[in-house]
Amino acid sequence: MQHKELSRVLYKEIETSQADFHAFRYLPSESLCYTVPEHRRFLPANFKHMKGKTFMLSFFALTIFVFVASPTGAVSPIEGKVIALDAGHGGGETGAVGYCGETAALEADVNLAVRTLLKAQIDAAGGLGYEVAQLSSRSDRVADAERAGSDVLISIHHNGSLNTSTDYTQSFVTQKNDKAFAQYIHPSLVSALGLPDKGIKSDGYGMTVYGSLPGILTESYFITNIVAACDFLNYQIGATSTRVHIEAQAMYDGLVAYFSRSAGGKGGRPNR
Ligand SMILES: [Zn+2]
Question: Cα–Cα 20 to 30 A to 254, which of 51, 75, 138, 215?
Fold first, then answer.
């Protein structure tokens, strides 16, 4: 580059930076800098501006943002609640068995998988997902849940049929307080899974028969359904949006709704 040309380029650059300097002085943010002396206004002084009102405004805005954006400010209605989670069967009992091709999907494994995810969510919200011991007697399981000081009980099951295309959502209750509780859990499962709704049935044989905890026995879907069985095998190899995930989330949402109602209308603990 010729010397003359270089000078011209340098001059051009100086002109440009002067123009930038000029433009900078009249930026809209100028109004935030009105207390800053003229000699501190150019770019190198920009940081120093933070010592003035700009800094105060930025700090104030950041404080508001953190307050609004932080989820830790809100107390979950789950906090302090003990939720008994019974994974149906286990202890050598498989429950219903579905097949994806030649590979078996055991109901007992699905029940445990849903319980694990649901417990993690409950515990993260400051509650306690109590894992009911997989005892052979239903009444002993309920007694175990009650000894733990549980507020409610969910007995997690999945249905079975010889027809591998059968699939729907159904829940079971026995006592009056079960029905009040189930009205929060069952509809949440139905809307999340999108399967036909066979409703909340009263029965006399599930875990809800025993004790006095508000409880529900859920049969969220049929593990004997081929789609469901294959979906569970996908869960086992690490898929992240399976029925297991959807079901656990739906139960959690139902619990939040139930305890929100209890906290608002009944002064804390639900009716027993
Ligand atoms: Zn079962």
Answer: 138
- Output the six-digit token pair for 227: 């789609």
Q: Which two tokens stand for residue 248?
A: 């656990």
In a domain, 135, yes or no: yes
Q: Which residues pair with 131 in a beta bridge?
A: 85
In DSSP terms, which residues pair with 173 in a beta bridge? 202
Place of tokens 């009056």: 176
Task: Name the DSSP letter for residue 87.
Answer: E
Specify whether the CB–CB gap between 177 and 115 falls below 8 A: no
Please give the structure tokens belonging to residue 172: 């079971």
User: pLDDT means per 10 residues in the chain (272 residues)?
Assistant: 42 36 31 30 39 48 46 82 97 96 98 98 98 94 96 97 98 94 98 98 80 93 98 97 98 97 48 38
Distance 87 CA to ligand 1 centre (A): 9
Q: In angstroms, rounded to a whole number, what is the distance separating the alpha carbons of residues 113 and 244?
A: 7
Expressed in angstroms and rounded, the spacing between residue 157 Cα and the centre of ligand 1 is 4
Q: Which residues contact 262 (CB under 8 A, 6 or more apart)?
A: 77, 268, 269, 270
Type and span of the H or E element at 200: strand 197-202
3-state secondary structure of 157: strand
* Domain total in the chain: 2
Range of the domain at 167: 76-265
Distance 81 CA to ligand 1 centre (A): 26
Cα dihedral: 231, 232, 236, 240 (round 10) = 50
> If DSSP codes are grouped into helix, strand and coil, which group holds residue 82?
strand
Question: Which pTM was predicted?
Answer: 0.71
